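To the team - WT7 complex, inputs and output below.
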Amino acid sequence: MSKSVGPANNFESLLKETRVFKPAKEFAAKAHIKSFAQYQRMWTESVKQPEKFWAKQATQELVWFKPFTKVFQWKEPNAKWFTGGKLNVSSNCLDRWLDTDLANKAALIWEGEPATDGKPGEERVLTFKQLHREVCRFANVLKRNGIQKGDRVIIYLPMVPEAAIAMLACTRVGAVHSVIFGGFSAQSVADRIQDSGAKMVITADGGYRRGAVVPLKKNVDEALRITDAKGVSLTQTIQKVVVLRRTWNEIHIEEGRDVWWHRELEYVSSHCPAEKLDSEAPLFILYTSGSTGKPKGILHTTAGYLLGAKMTSKYVFDLRPEDVYWCTADVGWVTGHSYIVYGPLANGTTCVMYEGAPNWPEPDRFWRIIAKYGVTVLYTAPTAIRAFMKWGEEWPNKHDLSSLRVLGTVGEPINPEAWMWYHRVIGGGRCPIVDTWWQTETGSIMITPLPGATPLKPGTATLPFFGILPEVVDDAGKAVPRNTGGKLVIRKPWPSMLRGIWGDPERFKATYWSEVKGSYFTGDGCRQDKDGYFWIVGRIDDVLNVAGHRIGTAEVESALVSHPSVAEAAVVGRPDELKGQALVCFVTLKTGQAATHELKAELRNHVGKEIGPVAKPDDVRFADALPKTRSGKIMRRLLKQVASGMEIKGDTTTLEDLSVLAQLATAED
Ligand code: WT7
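Output:
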């Protein structure tokens, strides 16, 4: 056990992980970055001479209509990258491959959700040429329906190729898309339309989810009827709704406002030159929940974002032309933007896109898809990995996963136990795991191993990507010593950073640029180990203070999950007269494990043993499931209320399964 007590404003980091996995020689030999020394050399250059580094990368990686004249301008908190240049994202993802060997290679391989009767799902393949044609046609549909450069367009679609087509078509005409995850409610759609001032919604009659139909168009109709207290429509800016036919359920069509996607295509040609857009032209707005409830519209712009997405895809996943790459995220999240659509296509990569759930109709859905298409790179989330562990190894073991060569994770800290399982059971012990730390705001991966270069340690995102300068600091903004917890900040601007919160410059400044002077504040707690590796210990707001010891929730959760009976754990604080805060743990068990009093005692002792007596939980509660957002993040805010016996308040619209909360509230102590 390593224990380091820092100044009172830092927190203690108690978990120690000592396993190291070096890149295999054969892998490194063929990789883009072949050694740790090469990584270090390039990273050092990139932060010592950022202008030179980024100018070279932007020239080499992107296709420009007009070259940029200035690399970057920085007037905190406003950044401008590659000014003077003109380019287009869709032509960087598509047109550039048309006169190459890749033109007739698969760009998207789409696998539909299997039917309820057990029949396999549909399958569609779009080559780069075909995808280009569909994007051009739909871009003409946008224009035909009044969309011009700078207009905002809401995309509210299921995981079908048309989601990518709609996004790329927006970029082609210079419209700013805002994708809303298909699981969000009518109210969320209305709020986002109102905030963005969107002119159009692109949706579908419905989407499939575990055999049921999600009534997307009906939600849009409802959203468009919502008014404020004075009876004023929240969505009055909407002029057109384009409806894709997917589930064939009956829907209402409002004459003059609603048009069918397939009908519109009959009127347009497949010729649509890409708009020549400024480097800083707004590209998309993506809403992410803020601590105060009102979602923040994170704004990304054209050149810098694309460069970040492209470079990180290439180096982090070590992409090559023959790869079959699969990112399991939804396009409604930033991961789907950067690592299903823009990053991979800009690299000419073949991407798998899957419509359904991982356990529908059976828990081996992912492994079936990997075997079917010979997937080589898999990018998923720790929450999914823990679910797979819970369902058991027999499911992946039924399938041939030998095509895999790189595994990735994103979304939250991956506990070492889940990392080891992923490595052994899915990766067959041979695939490097890239644990990638980043945020909606950062646009692309910031802290990550490079698979041919970085020695891996289970549970850490390791070291910064090129050009990125993260640091762990105390409340005064001073770097803390190694192995001391603090706030994670980023010291220098980078090309794919957010350019603002849509319509709210004050909040932008207050949220990201006021906490630590001169640096971007990530909101995460972190420590660096003796080798400089970054260990994220959770959101800084979630750090607990137990009897004067500040403890990161992720570490206690990790310790719990390292017990053989535990599938998943969430740890929150409850006000405690004596200790300030008491540690309350919510635990789900692996299939077949019984929730007994003995096990509770055993788990408390287990944590005490793993990370020390201060972290010994005061309370362990068993549950069938934990309350999660649709993107798989545990909703700690709600668990805190449950732990303190409070009434559940605040927005629960992003909750995956409401019944979970009722069960947690009544779970006996
Ligand atoms: C927050 C950002 C960025 C894509 C998906 C989530 C947490 C993300 C990791 C990781 C530890 C991670 C952080 C971060 N997070 N990846 N590899 N290790 N924590 O995007 O919804 O904007 O969330 O997710 O807390 O700040 P997001």
